[in-house]
Amino acid sequence: MIIRRANERGYADHGWLRSYHTFSFANYVDPNHMGFRALRVINEDRVAGGHGFGAHPHRNMEIISYVLAGEMEHKDNLGNGEVMRPGDVQRMSAGTGVLHSEFNHSKENELHFLQIWIEPKQLGIKPSYEQKAFPAAERQGQWRLVASPAGSEGSVSINQDVNLYAGLFNPGEQATAPPSRYAWLHVVKGEMEINGETLSAGDAAAFQPDESISLTGKEAGEVLLFDLD
């Protein structure tokens, strides 16, 4: 287990946007942290009320948005327009090219979300979009599959051999991770004990194939787990 602490991440403060970068992104470049397997970006963004990202293009990237607090308004040139709330998972396959915007739906409250980029398995596919809600009850004390290649178990589908699990864990709740190949675990909220080490919000850990992952909640929180080829 190799730990990546929250305070080691890149940071950018644009006033209306405060963003932590787990991997190299924009002006933050660290040759030792360019990504992990197909996982290329995990940005933890806080967007002030009434602000957001205007229309901008993406190409050949699988983009997952995961809202932690507040509401995010999404629009794209495919005709999609939805508001995301905590528990929602949005997947956008940029493929040959897509134009989209992301705004804080509230004029007053802060939007807190994760933007995740995964390199695609197949290039040049037709752009597509998908959003699903995963109630807290489905994630409490267990791993819930929220993204997978075939959209298994009601998850969103993704153009890469990656399984993404989400879990909510209270103090004392224990869980063993599903069998994985390479794995990246990201603590979203709270505090967890992972294989005997304490990880807090923003901390992450990388695992080699078939390395066991045991979790115990220390402070009520939320965790994402990526199973990667």
UniProtKB/TrEMBL annotation:
Keyword Iron: yes
Domain Quercetin 2,3-dioxygenase C-terminal cupin: 145-228
Keywords: Dioxygenase, Iron, Metal-binding, Oxidoreductase
Cofactor(s) listed in the protein's UniProt record: Fe cation
Co-factor remark: Binds 1 Fe cation per subunit.
InterPro entries membership: Pirin, Pirin_N_dom, Quercetinase_C, RmlC-like_jellyroll, RmlC_Cupin_sf
Pfam families (UniProt xref): Pirin, Pirin_C_2
Binding site residues for Fe cation: H56, H58, H100, E102
Coiled-coil region: none
Domain Pirin N-terminal: 9-118
A GO term, aspect molecular function: metal ion binding
Family: Belongs to the pirin family.
Name this polypeptide is given: Quercetin 2,3-dioxygenase
Source organism of the structure: Halovibrio variabilis
